[in-house]
Specification:
This protein is α/β, with parallel strands linked by helices. It has a single domain, classed as P-loop containing nucleotide triphosphate hydrolases (Rossmann fold, 3-Layer(aba) Sandwich). The protein contains nine helices and eight strands. A five-stranded parallel sheet has the order 2-6-1-7-8, with helices on one face. Strands 3-4-5 form a three-stranded antiparallel sheet, with helices on one face. β3 and β4 form a beta hairpin. α7 crosses α8. It is globular and about 45 Å long. It starts with 6 loop residues before the first strand and ends with a helix.
């Protein structure tokens, strides 16, 4: 039997740095990359471009199964996203894209179709997938499951710095409350709640540099991959 390409699943709450770490790990290994959280925004954008209503579950599910999406990272570790061969990263950051994502994510046929799409990213030589249920739902057989976390205060501080760097003034206290509320919603939801897989390795990134966290994940990956050979 031909062995399937290995998967590294990196899950965690908002602001834990899982996207940044996933991009760096994928680049270091030369593997495929999946940003699962962007898929609902991509689907909504693709549907809007094609004139498909965001409440047409059947048409959206069909579109999801044939979505032409690619994720990469540039030399600085910034995410690059293509839809139908066109870069769309900036379009996905708009409020309109976020609203569209919320609409399509409420449709079960869409969730089922996107599950199939996520699994289609598993291609040689391997896949690094980040999200909230990669290790528990999408790739339960992943060779390495990382649950990346950090304190709510640390994650709020990171987000505050990001926004300040963009010239956006926001209250650090308000960001902390928002993150705590989101953590509670994500962990208490009935469908695919946010939680570590039973065999996940927990990594608290509080006070650690991006390079240090990346090195830890790479060390774990190489250790486990060596055992697979």
């Amino acid at each position: 039997m031909t062995q399937r390409p290995p998967v590294i699943a990196i899950d965690g709450p908002s602001g834990s740095g899982k996207g940044t770490i996933a991009r760096r790990v994928a680049a270091a290994l030369g593997w495929q990359l999946l940003d699962s959280g962007a898929l609902y925004r991509l689907l909504a954008l693709a549907a809007t471009r094609r004139g498909i209503s965001l409440d047409d579950a059947g048409a959206l599910a069909e579109l999801a199964l044939d979505l032409d999406v690619r994720f990469e990272a540039d030399g600085a570790g910034e995410e690059l996203i293509w839809l139908d061969g066109e870069p769309v990263r900036d379009e996905l950051r708009t409020e309109e894209a976020g609203s569209g994502a919320s609409q399509v994510a409420a449709l079960q046929p869409v969730r089922d179709a996107l599950l199939a799409l996520q699994r289609s990213f598993r291609k040689p030589p391997g896949l690094v997938a980040d999200g909230r249920d990669m290790g528990t739902q999408v790739f339960p057989e992943a060779v390495l499951k990382v649950y990346l976390t950090a304190s709510a205060a640390e994650r709020a501080r990171r987000r505050h710095k990001q926004l300040k760097d963009k010239g956006i003034d926001v209250s650090l206290a308000a960001l902390s409350r928002d993150i705590e509320d989101r953590d509670r919603r994500d962990s208490e939801r009935s469908v695919a709640p946010l939680r570590p897989a039973e065999d996940a390795r927990i990594l608290d990134s509080s006070g650690q540099s991006i390079a240090a966290v990346t090195d830890t994940v790479l060390d774990w990956a190489r250790e486990l991959l060596a055992k697979e050979l």
